[in-house]
Automatic annotation (TrEMBL):
UniProt name for this protein: Cyclin N-terminal domain-containing protein
Domain Cyclin N-terminal: 61-175
Protein's GO biological process: regulation of cell cycle
Region: Disordered, residue numbers: 1-28
Species in which this protein is naturally found: Dimargaris cristalligena
Domain of life of the native organism: Eukaryota
Length: 211
């Protein structure tokens, strides 16, 4: 059974919503069966196989978003891309805030139908490269990232660099996003690496992130 509600498929938002495409409420719940025996009342939780959970989530995602994005993109592919971007940043010692910024770029490209199964890893890597350049103005940051990308993303650094300007143009040459588009992704990315809050992440004044 899927969490996240039912009903008519929502229309795509007229403005970017960080919780629309990869809805944090969209998750699989265990199926619970209650047994009543003599002198005993208990519940049996039926755990789905991972492949069944993934299929169910992807089907629900397709019903909600299939009309608005490329048909080859699934929720599991989006979440796998995000995991790989986290791994790239960690191995290259880049900021998690850069990953959150890349998530915004990635989802905007998906909603613009610029991303499909064949180019998803290359364009996701280009999103992270642009995010690091916007968020971490240090040359060595991109050098380390470009060295890590082939191993984690399975695409060459040359291919990513070739797509960088195209992605920049598809983002309408705008790499700086409103805080309300960025913060939900930052909070989720931080939790995924075991950091409970922005305050813990910055280790001090978090005024900028909490505006």
């Amino acid at each position: 059974m899927l969490g996240g509600g039912t009903g008519n498929a929502p229309q795509p938002p007229t403005q970017y919503d960080p919780n629309y495409l990869d809805d944090p409420g969209l998750k699989a719940d265990s199926r619970r069966t209650t047994s009543n025996l003599v002198g005993f009342v208990g519940s049996i939780i039926q755990h789905n196989k991972p492949v069944d959970v993934r299929r169910e989530l992807n089907e629900h995602f397709r019903r909600r978003h299939g009309a608005f994005i490329d048909s080859s993109i699934t929720l599991s592919k989006i979440r796998n891309l995000k995991l790989r971007l986290i791994q790239c940043a960690q191995q290259a010692s880049n900021e998690i805030s850069s990953v959150a910024l890349a998530y915004v770029y990635l989802e905007k490209l998906i909603l613009a139908r610029r991303i499909h199964k064949g180019n998803r890893r290359c364009l996701a890597a280009a999103c992270l490269l642009l995010a690091v350049k916007a968020n971490e103005p240090h040359g060595e940051s991109t050098a380390q990232l470009l060295a890590v990308i082939p191993k984690v993303m399975g695409v060459t650094s040359a291919a990513v660099l070739e797509q960088e300007f195209t992605v920049f143009a598809d983002l309408q040459f705008s790499l700086y996003v409103p805080i309300h588009e960025f913060m939900p992704h930052l909070n989720r990315a931080l939790r995924s690496v075991g950091i409970s809050s922005v305050q813990e992440y910055v280790g001090g004044d978090s005024t900028f992130y909490l505006k």
